[in-house]
């Protein structure tokens, strides 16, 4: 009896499995390219960059002729950049910048190439990329305000504005703040970023950064402690003055007592300590100047980044606007 019951249940399960479940036809509607792209975007937003790359690569393998393929490749370059793989990101961007059929994609690829180069401290490459973007987009930027809905005009205005900020950041990294201000002043007047860029430029134009002379610090340190006092390092200066005084007194006392070997040993230690006092003051002046420059650099870079934070490409071009509706405030 039990055998018959089990057989009947197996037969019933098989017959139900063979039937099309309700809603299965609706699910099949979404089994296409968008599913893979949505999966890649979801992984990106979760911070799982390598799974996102796998999903995008699967899309390119399965749908190589899809009209969105180049934009997906730009997504991949962005994700490589976020994952710290700057070399792979640069190769993807260079290929898109030189071979893309979509002008807007090629412009963004060149701009992002400059960003990758700047992050990798390849400053000449970054400058070249930003300048190329600005020069290429110049004819479209000149048409801003015309009664047209040409998407290249809007795209070029944004990319040019971003590239100007990239050059300003490059000037900050080089501690050439006047050059950074010139780039900010060169912002297209019709750009939404122009007002903020001009305000930042006014803050750094002709800025007077306090400096200390390493030569003067070293010269003053002939009298132990004075070089450090010049730098405002009062504790170090007082310590240098006291210890050098103690060593000098010990040398003189040893000589007067006829302990010449002891005097020579203490004199050797004092020579090292005295030389360290001078070199320490010189190094302190260089450190003071470097830190003063870095304060201005960090402030300028922070202001520029706050002025324009680029929208990640996966958000700029979501797989399906019906699922990921994100606005781009530009």
Describe, in plain words, how this protein is organized in 3D.
- The protein has 330 residues and is an all-alpha fold.
- The chain folds into 2 domains: 67-207, Serine Threonine Protein Phosphatase 5, Tetratricopeptide repeat (Alpha Horseshoe), CATH 1.25.40.10; 214-306.
- It is built from 16 helices and no strands.
- It has helices at 2-18, 24-28, 33-45, 49-62, 69-82, 86-99, 103-119, 123-141, 151-173, 177-185, 194-204, 214-220, 226-231, 234-256, 260-307, 313-316.
- Helix 3 (33-45) packs antiparallel against helix 4.
- The longest helix is centred in the last third of the chain and has 48 residues, at 260-307.
- The radius of gyration is 33 Å and the shape is elongated.
- The N and C termini lie far apart (75 Å).
- Residues 1-30 and 322-330 have low confidence and may be disordered.
- InterPro entries: TPR-like_helical_dom_sf.
- Keywords: Signal.
Amino- and carboxy-terminal Cα gap: 75 Å
CATH superfamily of the largest domain: Tetratricopeptide repeat domain
CATH class of the largest domain: Mainly Alpha
Number of strands: 0
CATH topology of the largest domain: Serine Threonine Protein Phosphatase 5, Tetratricopeptide repeat
Question: How big is the Rg?
Answer: 33 Å
Mean pLDDT comes to 83
Helix content: over 70%
- The helix/strand class is mainly alpha
Which CATH architecture of the largest domain would you pick?
Alpha Horseshoe
Beta strand %: under 5%
* Number of separate helices: 16
Low-confidence stretches: 1-30, 322-330
The H/E string reads HHHHHHHHHHHHHHHH
How many discrete domains?
2
Largest sheet: none
Indicate the overall shape. Answer: elongated
Signal peptide: 1-18
Keywords: Signal
Protein name: Outer membrane lipoprotein BamD-like domain-containing protein
InterPro entries: TPR-like_helical_dom_sf
């Amino acid at each position: 009896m039990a055998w018959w019951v089990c057989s009947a249940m197996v037969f019933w399960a098989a017959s139900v499995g063979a039937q099309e479940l309700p809603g299965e036809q609706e699910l099949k509607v979404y089994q296409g390219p968008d599913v893979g792209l949505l999966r890649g975007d979801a992984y990106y937003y979760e911070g799982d960059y390598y799974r996102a790359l796998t999903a995008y690569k699967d899309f390119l393998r399965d749908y190589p002729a899809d009209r969105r393929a180049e934009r997906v490749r730009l997504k991949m370059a962005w994700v490589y950049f976020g994952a710290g793989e700057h070399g792979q990101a640069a190769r993807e961007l260079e290929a898109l910048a030189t071979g893309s059929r979509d002008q807007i994609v090629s412009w963004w690829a060149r701009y992002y190439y400059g960003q990758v180069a700047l992050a990798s401290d390849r400053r000449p490459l970054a400058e070249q990329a930003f300048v190329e973007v600005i020069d290429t987009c110049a004819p479209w930027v000149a048409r801003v305000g015309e009664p047209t809905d040409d998407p290249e005009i809007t795209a070029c205005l944004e990319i040019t504005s971003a590239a100007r900020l990239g050059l300003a950041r490059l000037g900050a990294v080089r501690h050439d703040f006047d050059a950074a201000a010139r780039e900010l002043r060169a912002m297209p007047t019709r750009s939404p970023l122009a007002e903020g860029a001009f305000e930042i430029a006014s803050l750094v134009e002709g800025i007077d950064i306090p400096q200390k002379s390493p030569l003067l610090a070293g010269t003053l340190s002939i009298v132990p402690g004075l070089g450090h006092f010049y730098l405002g390092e009062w504790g170090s200066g007082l310590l240098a003055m006291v210890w050098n005084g103690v060593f000098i007194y010990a040398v003189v006392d040893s000589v007067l007592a006829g302990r010449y070997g002891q005097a020579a040993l203490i004199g050797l230690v004092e020579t090292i300590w005295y030389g360290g006092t001078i070199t320490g003051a010189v190094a302190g002046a260089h450190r003071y100047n470097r830190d003063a420059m870095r304060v201005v650099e960090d402030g300028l870079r922070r202001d520029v980044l706050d002025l324009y934070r680029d929208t990640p490409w996966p958000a700029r071009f979501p797989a399906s606007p019906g699922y990921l509706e994100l606005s781009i405030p530009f």
